[in-house]
Design a protein that fits this description.
By secondary structure, this protein is α+β, with helices and mostly antiparallel strands. Helices cover 27% and strands 23% of the residues. It contains 14 helices and 21 strands. Helix 7 packs antiparallel against helix 9 and helix 13 runs antiparallel to helix 14. The longest helix has 18 residues.
């Protein structure tokens, strides 16, 4: 899941994850602290430096090595980590972090306010840093005392930072490693404070971690002696690893493998936990050609039947007509999507517009290919001529952002922990789902004020989501299912962070004897 160089990395949304399980009970044996946890994942890790991550597929590999300022739990809710608490100034001019006092990096350097300042400076200035944009709202760092730090902010910005710090942006590196200019890409050494150290690494192939000696500040981390990661892109191969006993833990999201996993879970042979993706599968549109006409975009939106798309995925893509999942604090649970499926209404809008022709771009060889074909058929029923435009997966997203494509079928709309970041990326940012709507921009500026409480911000975001979807620059269709598949000895998978993003955070995963 590649991330374009247009802003901060995609992140899981806050709110309930809709976890379901096809197994009953769980592991019952005694904890096995000498166990080796074998994990296979679809995405590789290209390097081990937190601030050089180019895709969020690489985050999970390094969460056991580098602790973060904040974390999310299995429901996507923000939780303390290296920062015990955080608070914005009454006027929003700074974000103050209260830090843990019992943490040291493995090289013996204490974690303190100076370390936070050094890491932020590194992220903002290091050549090749992929977190520069994420830290751009921070204008300076004041060290109040050894364990209190204030991040000075551009006025009216920075409200998303506590959520951003749950990602690689919040991973802390020893000041000794920073000052020495250590190359962390292939060998982080003792520069982290997490429960594990890197013992062997083959870029884009595998990573071996060994539990660090001594007590860790997080009692839930370090439950196994070692973790062995292997990147395997093919879902069926990952499933075979589970069935043959070569793998302890993996994830699948393609419909065939999810259905297969459900069967294995029902048989009692394996543990299977399912969660809906936060990412929304949908159709992006640009105001180009016939899509400059609002009635044509509305016709396109009205012509889409989410149930027809869901059928492609054997029911593993749950119809959804909102940008955020239910239960998120910025969502209006009573909201009604304005362009529900109605082929006759869509046909009338097309006729009123004098016809409609669009180019439907998708990434060839991905699950959006069949989706695009179904959409083409639905559009034909409504009198919309849609020409399919397959492109390589690596080109799909960046070229759409660059304005090369009129529309795009994708599942990349990923709600963030804080809605301000979602707005910056998708609504008023490079995807421009607001279509330049000045009212949306005004609401977004107001809602991003860090001096406001979430309860004051929520109604503003509800208006933003409504106005954005009315523009019909994006049509939400459904949320796919991600299945966590493991042996009956693996513990801690039922509330694993990031599983609803299609990646993983295994820092609290263990095994039984």
């Amino acid at each position: 899941m590649a991330v374009s160089a247009v802003g901060t990395l995609a992140l899981v949304a806050c709110g309930g994850g809709g976890v379901s399980s096809t197994t009953a009970g769980g592991p019952t044996g005694a904890p096995d602290s000498a166990a080796v946890l074998r994990v296979t994942a679809s995405a590789p890790t290209r390097n081990l430096d937190p601030y050089l991550q180019t895709s969020y597929g690489g985050w999970g590999y390094i969460t056991p090595v580098f602790d973060r300022l904040t974390v999310v739990d299995g429901d996507g809710a923000l939780q303390p980590a290296l920062a015990e608490s955080w608070e914005f100034a009454p006027d929003g001019s700074y974000l103050e972090l209260k830090l843990r006092t019992d943490v040291s990096f493995h090289d013996g350097v204490p974690f303190d306010a100076a370390a936070v300042a050094a890491n932020i400076e590194r992220g903002k200035t290091m050549e090749g840093s992929t977190v520069t944009a994420a830290l751009s709202d921070i204008t300076g760092v004041d060290i109040v005392d050894d364990h209190t730090v204030r991040l000075l902010l551009v006025p009216g910005t920075g409200v998303e930072l506590p959520g951003v710090f749950t990602t690689n942006v919040g991973m802390m590196v020893s000041t000794k490693a920073i000052e020495s200019g250590a190359d962390l890409r292939n060998d982080p050494g003792a520069s982290g404070s997490g429960a594990y150290l890197v013992s062997e690494y083959i870029p884009e192939e595998s990573l071996s971690l060994t539990r660090a000696e001594g007590a860790n500040w997080d009692p839930e981390a370090g439950k196994v002696q070692a973790i062995e990661f292997e990147a395997i892109s093919d879902a069926s191969t990952r499933m075979n690893g589970i069935k043959t006993g070569a793998t302890d833990l993996t994830w699948v999201s393609s419909a065939n493998e999810v259905v297969e996993a459900q069967g294995l879970g029902r048989s009692g042979a394996f543990a299977v936990d399912e969660v809906q993706f936060r990412n929304v599968l949908g159709l992006y549109m640009r105001a180009q050609g016939d899509l400059t006409k609002p009635e044509v975009r509305q016709a396109v939106a009205t012509a889409i039947d989410p149930d027809a798309v869901s059928a492609l995925f054997s029911g593993t893509c749950t119809p959804s007509r909102q940008l955020y999942p239910a239960g998120s604090w910025s969502v209006d649970d009573s909201y009604e999507y304005p362009y529900t499926y109605d082929v006759e209404k869509a046909r009338g809008l097309v006729e009123a517009a004098g016809g409609a022709e669009i180019a439907l771009t998708f990434a060839s060889g991905t699950n959006t290919e069949k989706t695009a074909n179904v959409l083409q058929s639905l559009f034909d029923d409504a009198g919309i001529t849609a020409e399919l435009n397959p492109v390589p997966n690596v080109q799909n997203e960046p070229r759409y952002i660059a304005g090369d494509f009129q529309s795009m079928v994708a599942n990349s709309l990923s709600p963030k922990v804080d809605p301000a970041e979602t707005v910056n990326t998708f609504v008023t940012g490079p995807y421009d789902l607001s279509n330049g709507n000045a009212a949306i921009k005004e609401l977004a500026d107001k809602a991003a004020d860090p001096s406001l409480a979430d309860g004051e911000r929520a109604p503003l975001y509800q208006q933003i989501w409504d106005l954005t979807l009315q523009e019909a620059m994006f049509v939400p269709i459904c949320n796919q299912t991600n299945a966590t598949v493991s042996t009956d000895k693996v513990t801690g998978v039922d509330d694993m962070p990031w599983a609803d993003l299609g990646i993983f955070d295994v820092r609290h995963v263990g095994m039984t004897e």
